[in-house]
Design brief:
Distance between the termini: 59 Å
Largest sheet: 4 strands, antiparallel
Structural class: alpha+beta
CATH architecture of the largest domain: 2-Layer Sandwich
CATH class of the largest domain: Alpha Beta
Order of helices and strands: HHEHHHHEEHHHEHHEHHEHHH
Radius of gyration: 57 Å
CATH topology of the largest domain: Bacterial polysaccharide co-polymerase-like
Strand order of the largest sheet: 2-3-1-6
Number of helices: 16
Strand content: 5-15%
Mean pLDDT: 76
Shape: elongated
Number of domains: 4
Length: 503
């Protein structure tokens, strides 16, 4: 720790021993730096903030979503500082007064591109910032020009959003109309080809897929008809069995024979309704028939009449026979149709493939035509909404400001920084020169350097004249250092006065 303190004391003594050189270097660095800062023109910044309204219920209903409109606004933000728009700004402001050639215009556009910034703050706020620091203009001129450029950028922003998309909308509609006319001609030709083929090959309408579907449907219908036919024939066989066991006539209209006929008629009616043999009513009816038959066998009487049960069963049998015959005819027709479809597939495989191709081409063209037609109508409706309702609304939140103080450079900070750099440069130079010399500030340094013990040191004594001379020199040094600080204070004061004088 003592060694560090000793080194610090030695460094301070080295600088103080060459203080006039350090002061001269500090003055030179500060004067050069402050003179350079004086030639830096002030830059004035004008800002404006714009709110973009993206919520529109009608626009959402027709498919103009907030995401789509946000992408449009972001695209405009990115193209707002394009060369075309910047050229409009140059020609509409005083920047274009001195532009006389294409090369000068390109230079003005490139310089303006570095001075204008457009950034987005969130989803709905855009900030336009213009910074002007031209050396050929006064401070008030730079401030006014910054505001003028910012206002022009707002005007271009509004024009691009309100009316800029109308030309694109019209060109898009024209392109869609051309495509629709072309698709309509292709669709009409495909339809004529399809009609001609279907007229020549009616059995191959729809192609192989339609033929396969027709075959599948026909086979399914045939299976259903065959199932119905089997059920009908089974019912017919049951009726024939019942009819064989039923007498054609009964002995009398009353007594045991009439009871037998009535019991058999009831049993036949239950079977006609579809009751199974295990049904309780069927079992009771069978017992009633057995009892009536036993009574009739013990009774003998003359005369007879037609049996109603036999007549009913015979009518039902005729109806079942007619139904079975109709099902046989339908099954035969379906088998013939299946044979015809199979023969057509085997006879004309190329025609089936052609039918498939024609149907596929026609469907593709029709879908394309319907899609283009839908897109055109949506685009037309969108254009009407954007033109009449202006789905993107603008509001200037903060109008372009006229700056009263420069945004750059920060002269007080630069002046102070140059003062510090000048002082450090003077002190550093004095310290570096002390290291190049052969003197030692303390006895300890001398002892460490030679490795020999130092017996003692002799102090510097001053006479009265020396002390007076030393005091005068210190006063001169303090005056020089104070003058440097006073000059810094004056320059800072002038800077603040000039800022207050900007219109």
């Amino acid at each position: 720790m003592n060694q560090l303190l000793e080194e610090a004391r030695a460094a301070l003594w080295s600088v103080w021993n060459r203080r006039w050189l350090a002061l001269a270097i500090a003055w030179g660095v500060c004067l050069a730096g402050w003179l350079g800062v004086a030639f830096i023109p002030n830059a004035y910044e004008s800002q404006a903030r714009i709110f973009v309204q993206l919520d529109d219920v009608l626009a959402e209903q027709i498919g103009i979503g907030a995401g789509s409109r946000a992408r449009d606004i972001d695209r405009i933000r990115q193209t707002l500082v394009s060369s075309v728009n910047l050229e409009k700004v140059v020609r509409a402001t005083s920047l274009g007064d001195s532009v006389t050639s294409a090369g000068e215009m390109e230079g003005a556009i490139g310089k303006l591109a570095d001075e204008v910034k457009v950034v987005s703050e969130g989803a709905n706020i855009f900030e336009i910032t213009t910074t002007m620091g031209r050396s050929d203009l006064s401070d008030s001129g730079n401030a006014a020009l910054a505001r003028q450029v910012t206002q022009k950028m707002i005007d271009i922003f509004r024009e691009e959003n309100i009316g800029g998309s109308r030309g694109d909308m019209e060109s898009s509609l024209e392109f869609l109309n051309q495509q629709l006319a072309s698709r309509e001609r292709d669709l009409a030709a495909a339809e004529q080809t399809r009609l001609a083929f279907e007229t020549a090959n009616p059995e191959l309408v729809g192609g192989a897929q339609a033929i396969a579907s027709q075959m599948s449907a026909t086979r399914a219908e045939l299976r259903s008809v065959e199932a119905d036919l089997a059920a009908s024939e089974s019912a017919q066989a049951a009726l024939e069995g019942q009819l064989a066991g039923t007498p054609r006539s009964i002995a009398g209209a009353s007594g045991p024979s009439a009871n037998l006929a009535q019991a058999e008629a009831n049993l036949g009616a239950m079977r006609a309704r579809g009751l199974t043999e295990e049904h309780p009513d069927m079992a009771a009816a069978r017992r009633a028939v057995a009892a009536a038959r036993e009574q009739a066998s013990q009774y003998s009487g003359g005369g007879g009449s037609s049996n109603p049960a036999y007549s009913s069963l015979q009518a039902m049998l005729v109806q079942r026979q007619a139904s079975s015959q109709a099902l046989h005819s339908r099954a035969a027709a379906l088998r013939s149709e299946i044979a015809s479809i199979t023969a057509s597939q085997a006879r004309e495989p190329g025609a089936a493939a052609e039918a498939t191709r024609i149907s596929r081409d026609y469907e593709v063209l029709r879908e394309q035509y319907d899609t283009l037609l839908k897109d055109r109508e949506e685009l037309r409706l969108r254009g009407q909404v954007e033109n009449e309702r202006s789905s993107v609304q603008f509001e200037v939140v903060d109008p372009p400001s006229t700056p009263s103080s420069p945004a750059a450079p920060n002269r007080p900070l630069l002046l102070f920084g140059i003062l510090v750099v000048g002082l450090l440069a003077g002190a550093g130079t004095a310290f570096a020169l002390s290291k190049l010399g052969s003197t030692f500030a303390t006895a300890s340094q001398l002892e460490r350097h030679f490795g020999l013990p130092v017996i003692g040191t002799i102090s510097h004594t001053f006479t009265a004249a020396d002390r007076a001379l030393r005091a005068r020199r210190f006063a001169y040094f303090a005056a020089g250092l104070g003058g440097l600080g006073a000059l810094f204070t004056v320059l800072v004061g002038v800077e603040f006065i000039q800022r207050g004088m900007v219109a």
